[in-house]
Amino acid sequence: MATLNIKNMPDALYRKLQKRAKQQRRSLAQEVTQILAEAVEGRRTYSILELQGLGKEVWKGIDADEHVEAERKSWD
């Protein structure tokens, strides 16, 4: 695995990264790697169909496609 050294990082930025890593329960190196991966690869988007089972007790008896369509119409 490669190693990346960063020189001349502003102290304020370093402290913000440390704080963010702590909030995410990651090491500083893990957090920086995650940020860089998201910047380069982009965040994965999910289809509502891939989220089946997520909060299934809330969606019991509700057709997700119909619900989304009704929500979209309510924006007009």
Question: Can you tell me about this structure?
Answer:
The protein is 55% helix and 0% strand. With 76 residues, the protein is mostly helical. It has two domains: 11-41; 47-76, no CATH class. Helix 1 crosses helix 2 (28-41). The longest helix is centred in the middle third of the chain and has 14 residues, at 28-41.
Short description:
With 76 residues, the chain is mainly α. It is built from four helices and no strands.
- Strand coverage percent: under 5%
Number of helices: 4
Helix/strand structural class: mainly alpha
Distance between the termini: 51 Å
Q: Give the H and E element order.
A: HHHH
What labels would you give this structure?
55% helix; 4 helices; 76 residues; mainly alpha; elongated; single chain
Write the layout of secondary structure elements.
Layout: H1 11-23, H2 28-41, H3 56-59, H4 64-74
